[in-house]
Structure formats: structure tokens, C-alpha cells
Amino acid sequence: GLAKPIGLVEGPGGLGQGGLATTLQDDSREAEGKFEEYGYNAQLSDRISLDRTIPDYRPKKCRQMTYSPDLPQVSVVFIFVNEALSVILRSVHSVINHTPSQLLKEVILVDDNSDNVELKLNLDQYVNKRYPGLVKIVRNSRREGLIRARLQGWKVATAPVVGFFDAHVEFNTGWAEPALTRIQEDHRRIVLPAIDNIKYSTFEVQQYANAAHGYTWGLWCMYIIPPQDWLDHGDESAPIRTPAMIGCSFVVDREYFGDIGLLDPGMEVYGGENIELGMRVWQCGGSMEVLPCSRVAHIERTKKPYNNDIDYYAKRNALRAAEVWMDDFKSHVYMAWNIPMTNPGVDFGDVSERLALRQRLKCRSFRWYLENVYPEMRIYNDTLTYGEVRNSKASGYCLDQGAEDDDRAILYPCHGMSSQLVRYSADGLLQLGPLGSTAFLPDSKCLVDDGRGRTPTLKKCEDVARPTQRLWNFTQSGPIVSRDTGRCLEVEMSKDANFGLRLVVQRCSGQKWMIRNWIK
Length: 520
Ligand SMILES: *[C@@H]1O[C@H](CO)[C@@H](O)[C@H](O)[C@H]1NC(C)=O
Ligand SMILES: *[C@@H]1O[C@H](CO)[C@@H](O)[C@H](O)[C@H]1NC(C)=O
Ligand SMILES: [Mn+2]
Prior knowledge:
By secondary structure, this protein is α+β, with helices and mostly antiparallel strands. Helices cover about 25% and strands about 25% of the residues.
């Protein structure tokens, strides 16, 4: 079974308090403070050996494989900001201990302007003494974000292959050889070591199931089930085709990475660059794969740096990727974030250089990529209008999917988040709630007038008994009329309803509805 549910990763989430039980009573306050600062149990990390070896979770077959004696060398880049020193050092020790020394050219630590003093002198002194000449430290004089921090590391790297990692990882035995082999065979392959989990509270390592890395239309990453042909093939050690990457670990030919445009330096902080690289490498003639024989364990922190603004940056970066790589499908990204396509309220900067790059590399269409690399994506190209829907009788209120497990649409003060995403499609469906995005997630539901009672319901579109019950006529500033019953969706004032407003289907009284955005 899967150790990791298929779904969003690295999303917001509360602190897991359970792990703190492992720390002693008298210093629990300090432990808690560090936990909140780093998003993992840093005090426990300080007590765990820097040289521990994690369990070997490679598929059995990997252990029998042999590799060429002339593999290219790798430069390993770790990026960090305000990370616990022991966690960074364990990442460094781990890669040095688990990479054949003739293959490891250097380790590059990129400090994105951390505040912690122990990450300055202490770190320098430690690595210069312990690993003289092997570890380079690059320091950003201002905070650039983790995307441009990786690019700083790439500039300094000298080996033919570069691996980029978060600085809270540990390496499995034999991680390097299969990755370097795949890149030596074809330098246009971007290789992702398979990811296992280091529990943030106990630092135990837990194996994750084989997965590819996908994303939603908001361009937020998630683990997905490997492609059917990989599953059918039945070889757990085989590379897994992947549409994009989670981003905490990837290995790439140094020159090729430069040729295809690195990561978009116009993106801020992190989020979206991992998806954009996936689209770009595939559309421009390369490929991306997860390699089950090459494994890295990673801490999913409960708290990230730049946490407060990450939604804004993820949205901004997503729009850059959409505008450059997604052709007509860029509408799906605007829909997913529930923002208009013109004047979206987000300044995504200048993308002209990225568009020129796409021209220069003569890259394929996004449609080609969807069909060949990410067929699990749901396509919403029949959408005519989308966004918040308001009634002239209650203008501060919007149609809302209400509680997720409930089948009632409601009116709720407008906030523009995805529970208030309404889509009206060419065939007359009126759908509410966040885009399901892929076959792995439930899709938004259809508004239904089943002719019984006065309450409109929300149902899975395919479950509606009579298909016409889910069809509506809707024109801007006009009524919303059921094609099945001829009744109208209307607002009724009622003392005992939430906010004094009830959503009903009734004989049309001439109420008008407005929807916010059009697909261009
Ligand atoms: C929508 O996408 C489907 C599947 O790719 C395609 O067959 C259809 O022609 C598209 N429709 C429009 C309006 O672009
Ligand atoms: C819906 O619109 C179509 C096309 O304009 C029209 O023929 C039909 O009568 C309308 N249905 C209702 C119930 O208003
Ligand atoms: Mn990470």
C-alpha cells in the first residue's frame, strides 16, 4: 500500500505535537521554540549522529545492478535559509558518506541570507576543518528566495552533473550511480531521486510508495500514481516518467541545465519553479523521471521559511509559468486561483525573455505535453465564464459550495477563494468549488434542480439521475433558469437562514445574477 496518500504535499498544516514527547521535560520549552522556528524537532536532531545511515529502501533489484567505472562527477548543491545547523551538517555528512569519493566533485552550500549566527562562523569553521577543500559556501548578501539560491549554486558548480537538494535530507546508499548513469546515457534527462520521509518529530525514516510528481491546475505539486505502463511493466526499479517535480531533490547535466534556461530567475522565493521546469524540459525535447534506485529521505517541515507570503508567491510564479508555457490552457491556472485573466491583481513581472527562450528552443505545445506526459489532468476547456457569482438582491454574498461533505450550495459573504469558484460551461453545467484538476482528486460538483422541493443540491455531475436536471440557462445580469423544470435559482430572505438568506429554486421572479470572469 501507499505510505503517502496521493494528494497535495507541503501544503499548510498544524504542528504535530506528538513528537515533542521524546524530549525531556526540563528543556521542553526550548524544544518547542526550536520546533516552531524550524518546523521540525531540531533539539532531537542535535542528539542524533551526523553519520547515521538510513534504512536501504531501494527495490531489491537495484542492489544487484552494476555501473560503468567512468561515470561523470557530480557537484551537490544544498540551499538553505535559517535551518538548524545539525540538520544541514547531517545532509552534508550523509552525501559525503554515501557517495563514492571519486564521483563527488564538491558540496556547495548556498545560504540565502540566514539570520542565525551559528550558520555563519560555526558552519564555515566546521566544514573547513572536517572537509577541507571539498565544501564551498556561497552566501547571498540579501534574501533571493530558494529559486535564485539554486542558481547561485549552479554558477559555482564545476562537475559535469549538478544535484540540487534541500538542506534537510539524507542520502540512501547507492543514490548517485543510477542517477549519473541515466544522465550519461542521455544528458537531456532530469533525474529525480525517489523521496522517502524523515518524520519531523522523531527523525525516523519512513519509506514512501513509488510515485511520480504531478500538480494541480494551481501549479501546486503533489505525488501521483505512476503511469499505467510503468505499473503494467512490473519492474519497481525502472525509471518512472514524471510530468514535474516536487523540487526538494533533482539531478541534471550542468551544461544542459544552462542551455534550457535553468530555473526561471524571475520567479520569487519558491513554488511553481518545480512545475515550470517539468513543462519546459518535456516541451523542449528533454524528459524528467523519478529513479527508484536512487533515493533520498527528506523532512517535510511543518513550517517553511517565507511562510506568510507563500500563497502570493506561488500564485505569482504560477502565472509566469502559465503565460509562457501553457498556451490556451493558461485559463485553467487563472480559474484554479479564481482570479480574472485581465488585471488579475498580481504583478507577475516581465516574461519576454522566457517567451524568447521558448521560441529559441523551438518547444512543443502544452497540448502535446498534456496528451503525452500528463494525461491524468482534467481539461476544463468548455468553460465560458467563471468566478464569484452574486445576486443583485444580496450583493455582498456569493454562491458557495458550503461544507465539502454536504450537498447544499449556500450563500456566503464573498471572499473569492476556491469554494466560491463557479464555472458555467458551454453545455449548460453550473459547477461549484475548487477544480478537481486531475483524475486523482474529486472534481467540483454540479448544481442540480431535481424538481423535488425548493432546495437546489450539489451532486457529482456523473451521478445526476436525469442529465437535464444539471443544465441551466445563464446570461450575464439575467436569471439562472433550470432547463429541466423552468424554475429559477433565486435568493429568498428568511429570518431563520444563515445571514438571513436562503438559496431556492422557484417560479422566476426576475432576479439577476452576475458572474465575474470570462475566458478570453
Ligand atoms: C477540449 O479538449 C478536448 C480534449 O482535448 C478536445 O477534443 C476539444 O476539441 C476541446 N474543445 C475546445 C472547445 O477547445
Ligand atoms: C434555454 O435557452 C435555450 C436557448 O436560448 C432556449 O431554447 C430554452 O428555451 C431555454 N430554456 C429555458 C428553460 O429557459
Ligand atoms: Mn524541503
